[in-house]
Amino acid sequence: MGKRTIVPFGPQHPALPEPVHLDLELDGETVVRAVPSIGYVHRGLEKLVETRDYQQMTYIMERVCGICSMGHGYGYVNAVEGLMGVEVPDRAKVLRVVFHELSRVHSHLLWLGLLADGMGFDSLFMQCWRIREKVLDVFETVTGGRVIVSYCRIGGVACDLTPEHISMILKVCDEVEKEMDWVRRVFFLDSSVRNRLIGVGQISKDEMVELCGVGPTARGSGVDNDARSADEAYQALGFEPILYDEGDCYARCKVRVDEVSQSIELIRKALGDLPEGEWRVPVKGNPPAGQFAFRVEQPRGEAYYYVKGNGTKFLDRARVRTPTNINIPTMTRMLQGCGMQDVSMIIITIDPCISCTER
Amino acid sequence: MGVLKASGKLWSNLFHKPATEAYPAAPREYPSASRGHLEFDPSDCILCNICGKKCPTGAIRADKASRTVTIDRMDCIQCSYCADSCPKSCLSMAPGYTAPDSTKTVDTFTVPEREKPAEKKAE
Question: Which of A11, A252, B23, B83 is most buried, most CB within 10 Å of its CB?
Fold first, then answer.
């Protein structure tokens, strides 16, 4: 065994979009071990439940992360509604699905851009982000926020969709779908992308199950653990998870490219069969003593929301288990045995969100 | 399989106008629902401080003694919870972001005294 070197990687690094630090133990140019350390952007948001009531916490939980803001709102309000026994109108459930899938489209397009940027394919990066802007324009027009959409409320949604909004969303779906044909062709067929991703950061299905990986990272290894399969609102739309078996960076990329098209189909189905009626019910009183947990499939993977009430307007506990938190062990496993030049690619393909992880 | 799969789009970009706008020369047009900043109209305010109790960050406060409403622009997260809760609809979200500043400023609004309605005389 030769002399081993430890190379510090991050939290500030040109190839890394997120503030995570890794100590890379190298044998020559091969990574033998990667030791992650986090804690650079901890904000203590979960502790705020002690001084903010359960309604105010909706706005705080939406700000756990910018990109998965809709997913965090979706998870928190569902958990509180479950605790309080609130029956949400069908129209609100479908509207939440529409916006959750729109947020998945923008999150995956952002990630595809970051992946292209990480491999030095800057024109592809800019094209992906250009397409994403259309979705952000929908968010701003309907909800008022480009990134923090703030659409979920306890008991329903913040606003109803007008016929103009629906036609705008469908038009954007058509435009994004058309653009995705080109994006898919480049990501799936371009030799510079394939050479950079195929066989890199491979992890088997068994290892992924053992390490409890979640989200597109796990689905790229053939693990079917999409939380949307268990969600009634998605079951009604005939949702089927997208799985690839290769387990490398290329498979994880293909899962996300396909999920953009799948989300567009889900939005079309949801808007085509939008139930009439109320979109928000008034919620009065305080959460009772008790606890409730809710799983939500965010763009980066499964998030787990736990709330515990005590009969007052303040919750005893609001805990979030975020997808990146779970995928860090899978990432360190993928890094073992890879070349130093592939480290940034592998980190990017788990779609890390350290802002979520540290809250 | 092959190289230059992206080239068609890149060539077409040469003959289209840029996807970006020449901001600030071309001003940004915001949708009417955009939550850019909080606006306050003191004419109907009853200084109930419901906005202050609802605000998740404590950015707004109504003080009955001095008849003022203060908004800390740096603390405001544009969530619109205060605007949704105001019983007199004095608060509203307006498009356009607040201008950048080198110092932290707090906007103070004075709520005018209103004449009390004349008491009805017993007949």
Answer: A252
CB pairs under 8 A between A and B: 65
Q: Which residue among A130, A140, A191 sits closest to B1, beta carbon to beta carbon?
A: A191
ipTM of the complex: 0.82
For the sheet with A317-321, list strands across it. Answer: A290-298, A301-309, A317-321
Contact A241, A229 (CB under 8 A): yes
pLDDT at position A3 is 80
Q: Using the beta-carbon criterion (under 8 Å), do A123 and B6 form an inter-chain contact? A: yes
> What's residue A2's pLDDT?
66
Chain A contact present for B18, CB below 8 A: no
DSSP 8-state class, residue B95: S
Please, which residues have CB within 8 angstroms of residue A110's CB and are 6 or more apart in sequence? A67, A128, A129, A132
Give the number of C-alpha atoms closer than 13 A to the C-alpha of residue A169, restricted to the C-beta side: 28
Residue B70 confidence (pLDDT) above 90: yes
Mean per-residue pLDDT over chain A, rounded: 89
Q: pLDDT for A222-254, tens place per residue?
A: 898 888 888 888 888 888 889 998 888 999 999
Domain A42-326+340-358 CATH assignment equals 1.10.645.10: yes
Pairing of strands A156-157, B68-72: unpaired
Distance between CA atoms of A24 and A15, rounded to whole angstroms? 15
Which residue of A45, A48, A58, A59 is the best one to mutate when testing the B interface, meaning the one whose CB has the most B CBs within 10 A? A59
CB proximity A66 to B under 8 Å: no
Domain boundaries, chain B: 37-112
Burial class of A25 by CB neighbour count within 10 A (0 to 12, 13 to 18, 19+): middle
Distance from CA of B109 to the nearest CA of A (A): 25
Chain B contact present for A194, CB below 8 A: yes
Kindly report the nearest CA distance between residue B118 and chain A, in angstroms.
37
Which pLDDT score, from 0 to 100, does residue B1 have?
53
> Residues A164-200: pLDDT tens digits?
999 999 999 999 998 898 888 888 888 888 888 888 8
Which among B5, B35, B54 is the nearest to A144, CB-wise?
B35
**CA distances, A276 to each of A19, A171, A233 (Å):** 45, 22, 15
Interface check for B1 against chain A (CB to CB < 8 A): the answer is yes
CATH fit for domain B37-112, picks 3.20.20.140, 3.90.226.10, 3.30.70.3270, 3.40.50.150: 3.30.70.3270
